[in-house]
Design a protein that fits this description.
The chain has 178 residues and is an alpha+beta fold. The protein has 4 helices and 9 strands, in the order H-H-E-E-H-H-E-E-E-E-E-E-E. The strands form 2 sheets. The chain has a 5-stranded antiparallel β-sheet, covered by helices on one side. It has a 4-stranded mixed β-sheet with strand order 1-7-8-5, with helices on one face. It is extended. The mean pLDDT is 80.
Length: 178
């Protein structure tokens, strides 16, 4: 019986350490879940935009400098956009268009970036407003030449964590409407 009694404290200690580690991981994850969610949901262009805003403190950004692919039109669609509306705006057949659009922005704070080249979708991604809010840009199309935005810190609006909102305003006002 002595052997089993010496193992019990050791076993209890292991369970306690394991439970403490699990609790710590859950706590850290819960505290950072919003940041993790935003990071995972954002696409490559959106993340590059965030780096320009946060890391480089840029005052102006050219979307064509953030992409690693060729494109001739760039569209931004807001939350609650329907696939049929998006495909109509892109002037692409529904079956070709809907096969490329796998996720739709379903809540405030999300947008959909769609890039075309020669009337074909070459890139689709979700953009999170945390990485910059596009002002006067939704439902507009941009070319690599006019997809240039001034970055303005809106000191009257903040995110829930207190960070100021960065607004992206089109530099060129002669934008094509969809």
């Amino acid at each position: 019986m002595k052997k089993s009694s010496t193992k019990k404290p050791f076993f209890k200690r292991r369970i306690f350490i394991f439970c403490a580690l699990v609790a710590l991981i859950i706590f850290i994850t819960a505290c950072n879940f919003g940041n993790i969610y935003r990071y995972l949901l954002s696409g490559d262009v959106s993340k590059a935009l965030k780096r320009e805003i946060v890391d480089k403190d840029a005052k102006r950004v050219n979307i064509s400098e953030l992409t690693k692919f060729q494109w001739d039109k760039f569209f931004i669609f807001g939350a609650y956009s329907l696939v049929s509306e998006i495909c109509s705006s892109l002037e692409i057949k529904d079956h070709e268009c809907s096969s490329k659009i796998k996720y739709l922005p379903m809540s405030e704070g999300e947008s959909l970036f769609v890039f075309l080249e020669n009337h074909k979708i070459v890139h689709v991604e979700v953009h999170i407003d945390w990485n910059g809010i596009f002002d006067e840009a939704e439902e507009k199309s941009f070319t690599p030449q006019n997809a240039v935005f001034d970055l303005v810190i809106d000191k009257e609006r903040r995110f829930h964590d207190g960070a100021y909102i960065t607004v992206l305003r089109p530099v060129f006002k002669n934008l094509q409407s969809n």
